[in-house]
Amino acid sequence: MHKPPAFQFYPKDFLNDYNVVAMSMEEVGMYIKLLCYCWMENGIPVDDSHPIAKLLLNSKVAKCFYKKNERFFNPRLDEERKKQKRFAKSMKEAGLRGAKKRWGGHSQAIARGIASDSSSSSSSTAVLTPLPPLRKGGRKYQRKIAGSNSDPAYREAYEKNKAKEGKP
């Protein structure tokens, strides 16, 4: 899984945090910088020779972090990271449910055969685009893509349906 590039920042929670209220403006800037580093690097190294660790260890901001497995973490960032993981998982599951509903038991669209008519000006054989299954309300989409599909059988069925519907 990729690293999320950003985290949610809630100004009301930030400004109502007693630790933040007690910080000087310089410490607030340092805290935000440390939060960003902590997010990007999944923690701040405990090693006091590391410049970011030095910044943390030599400030009052350190009380906003905790130590675990030789790294410093922030509880609120941990919560945000968990939220993002839950959201990503729910979106993945929703996508899988949608694909299953649309394609049935197939994990992918079933590809149509390879075009074999020799009317193509190209010497290579083209693979045809898979089409979505017909479903109620799906004709508008199929009309839209019909012009780009070179399958003669599909075109014939498309023209018959169009004529049956009385559309030009």
Tell me what you see in this structure:
With 168 residues, this protein is mainly alpha-helical. The protein folds into 2 domains: 1-108, no CATH class; 112-168, no CATH class. 50% of the residues lie in helices and 5% in strands. The chain is built from 7 helices and 3 strands, in the order αααβαββααα. It has helices at residues 11-16, 18-21, 25-41, 51-57, 75-103, 139-146, 152-164, and strands at 44-45, 66-68, 71-73. Strands 1-3-2 form a 3-stranded antiparallel beta sheet. The longest helix is centred in the middle third of the chain and has 29 residues, at 75-103. The radius of gyration is 29 Å and the shape is elongated. The model has no long low-confidence stretch (mean pLDDT 79).
Compose a concise summary of this entry:
With 168 residues, the chain is mainly alpha-helical.
| SSE string | HHHEHEEHHH
Report the helical percentage. Answer: 40-55%
The multimeric state of the shown protein is single chain
> Span from first to last CA?
49 Å
Provide the fold topology.
Blueprint: H1 11-16, H2 18-21, H3 25-41, E1 44-45, H4 51-57, E2 66-68, E3 71-73, H5 75-103, H6 139-146, H7 152-164
Antiparallel strand pairs: 1-3, 2-3
Q: Main attributes?
A:
168 residues; mainly alpha; 2 domains; elongated
